[in-house]
Amino acid sequence: MEIGPKLRELRIAKNLTQEELADRAELSKGFISQLERDLTSPSIATLVDILQCLGTTINEFFSEDPEEQVVFHYEDYFEKEDTELLNKTEWIIPNAQKNMMEPIRLTLKPGGSTYRDVPHEGEEFGYVLKGTVKIHIGKKVYTAKKGESFYFTPHSEHYIEAPNSTGATIIWVSTPPSF
DNA sequence: GCATGCACGAATTGGAGAGC
DNA sequence: GCTCTCCAATTCGTGCATGC
User: Fold this and answer.
1) What region holds the HTH cro/C1-type domain (predicted)?
2) Domains, in order of start, for chain A
């Protein structure tokens, strides 16, 4: 990556000469000149000093400022249907495993269920959009119907099922173990 | 495995000089 | 005179070999 032109741009924006910047960063003016022409590369410590003098941080300096996707559309979704367990999982935020939250829309056919998840770190939250679900956490069973929500820490084996009479659709948000 | 010494390259300095 | 570039010299960091 060429940092020289970017450094020069920042220095000029601050109305500083190479000598003034060198004084502030406790470096030589010759070295600043070489840096701006990409004839040499600074150590991390030196770059941090220079950027401090230019009123910025190393994070901002190297940030490419990518456009963050905020709104996700149906075509962004990834879905998987399990004909054995009678459920359909839609990852409504793609690649969310790397985020702090992993939201999915889960549709359970009558008598359908999720797979039995082993205990893990993190937290689980759900909101029932349609129907009724039974939440199995260890040996306990909780019921939540349309408009209700549930929240638990998955320290025991857990899964969700829909009664034989009705199916259900829920929004399910879990946090990965690393969080 | 750890400490020491050595060699080498990269980082940095600071004076000299060129261009405007 | 100010700003910038060039370049030789110095300092620093790292990898490698050697000995304990």
Assistant:
1) 7-61
2) 4-62 (1.10.260.40), 74-174 (2.60.120.10)
DSSP A101-167: -EEEEEEE-TT-B---BPP-SS-EEEEEEEEEEEEEETTEEEEEETT-EEEE---S-EEEE--SS--
Contact A149, A168 (CB under 8 A): no
In angstroms, the CA of A61 and the C1' of B15 are apart by 32
Contact residues for strand C with beta carbon within 7 Å? A 17-19, 29-30, 33-34, 36-37, 39
Q: pTM for the full model?
A: 0.53
Nucleotides of chain B touched by protein CB (<7 A): 10-16
Q: Strand B closer than 7 Å to the CB of A17?
A: no
pLDDT digits (tens, 9 = 90+) for A15-67: 777 777 777 777 777 777 777 776 666 766 677 777 777 777 776 776 655 55
Beta-carbon contacts of A50 under 8 Å, excluding residues fewer than 6 positions away, are: A7, A21, A25, A27, A32, A35, A42
d(CA A97, CA A103): 9
Tell if A83 CB is < 7 Å from nucleic strand B: no
> What phi, psi does A64 have (nearest 5°)?
-85, -5
